[in-house]
Write a structure and sequence with these properties.
- The protein has helices spanning about 15-20, 40-50, 65-80, 95-100, 120-130, 165-185, and strands at about 5-10, 30-35, 55, 85, 105-110, 135-140, 150-155, 195.
- α1 (about 15-20) links the parallel β1 (about 5-10) and β2.
- α1 (about 15-20) runs parallel beside α6 (about 165-185) and α5 (about 120-130) crosses α6 (about 165-185).
- It is of the alpha/beta class and about 200 residues long.
- Bound molecules: glycinamide ribonucleotide (GAR).
- Glycinamide ribonucleotide binds near residues 11, 43, 111, 172 and 175.
- Glycinamide ribonucleotide binds near residues 9, 12, 88, 172 and 175.
Length: about 200
């Protein structure tokens, strides 16, 4: 029986599109919901165009009460009965309580070669450090930010004339290859990390 996948996003959702498009044929999973903390997120429209159910829980009315926001989000999620939760450009920090509900079933993509550059501005930091290789990581989500068992990494070169924007674009292309590859293995119960060059 195929695994049910919910995807959380905050922005344009290009990783979500790559994930949804990958889940066809003999892939072990299918998308059941795309949800966002931003009702205006471009990714919600793109999900609808792909025929995937969507939900939005605006985080702003919950200001100061992260747990209440997460409870509302959790309600939407459990209604879709997902087996796996994929964070794909979801830009809200999750509380340990939410993470505990999904631990072992939740993946995140981060635009750096973890453990390097947790948090934001990863590409500018890689360039400032003089790195010649950058990339992205898919990991299981645990209570520590941008931590948890690494399920896959993809590397790209850093060019001498790169800006944060040009590097971000190259890494994003690698993200679109890495995340579907990791999800396919994860959904099949294969813990072997994916390594892409
Ligand atoms: C991606 O680069 C993803 O790695 C990053 O946000 C972007 C979302 O793009 N995520 C993080 O920085 C999480 N800390 P997308 O909406 O086009 O998939």
């Amino acid at each position: 029986m195929s695994r049910r996948v919910a995807i959380l996003l905050s922005g344009g959702g290009s990783n979500m599109v790559a994930l949804v498009r990958s889940m066809t044929g003999d892939h072990p999973a299918r998308p059941v919901l795309v949800a966002s903390n931003d009702p205006a997120a471009g990714g919600l429209t793109r999900a609808q165009e792909l025929g995937v159910a969507t939900a939005a829980v605006d985080h702003r009315p919950f200001r100061g009460d992260r747990a209440a926001f997460e409870d509302a989000l959790h309600e939407k999620l459990i209604a879709a009965r997902p087996d796996i939760l994929c964070l794909a450009g979801f830009m809200r920090i999750l509380t340990p309580g939410f993470i505990a509900r999904w631990e072992g079933r939740m993946l995140n993509i981060h635009p750096s070669l973890l453990p390097k550059y947790r948090g934001l501005n990863t590409h500018a930091r890689a360039i400032a450090a003089g790195d010649t290789v950058a990339g992205c990581t898919v990991h299981e989500v645990t209570a520590e930010l941008d931590d948890g068992p690494i399920r896959g990494q993809a590397t790209v070169p850093v060019r001498s004339d790169d800006t944060a924007q040009s590097l971000a674009a190259r890494v994003l292309t690698a993200e679109h290859r890495l995340y579907p590859a990791v999800l396919a293995r994860f959904a099949a119960g294969d813990a072997t990390p994916v390594t892409l060059g």
